[in-house]
From TrEMBL:
Residue spans crossing the bilayer: 12-33, 39-57, 64-83, 89-110, 122-142, 185-204, 234-258, 264-279, 286-307, 319-335
Annotated keywords: Cell membrane, Membrane, Transmembrane, Transmembrane helix
Protein name: ABC transporter integral membrane protein
Membrane topology summary: Multi-pass membrane protein
Compartment(s) where it occurs, according to its Swiss-Prot or TrEMBL record: Cell membrane
Organism, as annotated: Syntrophomonas wolfei subsp. wolfei (strain DSM 2245B / Goettingen)
Entry annotated with the keyword Metal-binding: no
Top-level lineage group: Bacteria
Amino acid sequence: MKNYRLKPPQIIISAFLILLIALSYILHMDLVVLLNQSMVKLVMNGVLVLSLIPMLNVGAGMNFGLPVGIIGGLVGMCLAVNFRMTGFYGFFMSILFTLMICTLLGWIYGLILNRVKGREEIAGTFIGFSFIPLMNYFWTLAPFQNREMLYPIGGQGLRPKISLENYFNHILDNFGLISIGNIEIPVGLIFVYAIICLFLYLYFRTKIGRATIAVGENEAFAKLSGINISQTRLIAIIISTIIAGFGICIYAQSYGFIQLYDEPLSMAFPAVSAILIGGSTGKKTFIFEAILGTYLLQSMYLLSVPIANEILVPELTEILRSFITYGIILYALLVRERRGINS
């Protein structure tokens, strides 16, 4: 991170964020409440963004197949809720189920991506988008027994949104919550986020982690150095998938609901956009870039909603979200093409 320089997406989003803060002040909005929410949003969405780093660093590109890991996490949470596991025990079991399921899904996903080297982003997009309809059949036909999860009429098929109110809703948000005046600091939530950041930091300092970076920077040289390319890529993809699964568990406990069916489709692009805003070029990526990009993007989303409602243009929020999310990805692809980096 030496000689770190701000890139155009960061400058644009930062300037826009400053404008939104100024508008919030002019409109007499409670900036403290928005600050409190921004800290929750950082972690709520940040783990999904962190999950992109191993695949980026191994040279597999931006993980548009993020729904694969997300679905693993959703299945893990559904199992915990089905068995009526509550509190920290319920959340821990969700994580444990997610670990097992995402390891399997990540292994299969990795094997597929190893067969399409150089086209991982396109393949990941199609895998993610095709896996969702397949899982829609699962959500409809799986023999879950907890009535709170099922449609009230007929008792067959899971609801699109399953409430976590009686299970592990806000279990991390409220753990170790510190109040300093009107400012609330979700220590438990931030601690979990820090643990995942620390894991990634230490991982990239292990032998396999350094091999991951070497493969991403120069695969031919890594191969000549005796590194098993396919195995290294497979491990990175599995880790990305597992962290994505953990990410949706953390997201769901903050949101208060498990969102099924087509909801995972909308989660990959904002995560990719966030890491690009943080400064990633689509190749080697640092943890700091994921944190910075997530905070900038989510803060912008957070501020744009009340401002849009205040100036009576509620549609503006979704327009801005879509424009910035896809615009940043397009910008990154254009820059990468200009640099001659093949996706």
